[in-house]
């Protein structure tokens, strides 16, 4: 396998819902493993996600997990997940699904550099940037 770089998102108890949401947005194959699946069946967090991975037909890989008890995190503090390309319909479709129920900080519209760009935070607190190239 070649080396690859992909986002790994941390959640405070709603990783299952978030990863299932991203599967609805991007499609693909979702593999979820709970703490209970890895020998912690009696632990209070047994149903929480220890590791989740979504692999899409577009070649995206998105991973995520619930933080273990006592390791809370602030969502969206120092990162954004960026989607970019020139497939207008595909990227607008992702934008619509990601921004629904979340908040839009920059509407998806033509920008001074010529591309269509927007920024939103989805309903799970994950910030997204979408850039649709309009130049060849």
UniProtKB/TrEMBL annotation:
Top-level lineage group: Bacteria
InterPro entries documented for this protein: Glyas_Bleomycin-R_OHBP_Dase, Glyas_Fos-R_dOase_dom, PhnB-like
Region span, Disordered: 61-83
CDD domains: PhnB_like
Glyoxalase/fosfomycin resistance/dioxygenase domain segment(s): 5-130
Protein name: VOC family protein
Organism: Streptomyces massasporeus
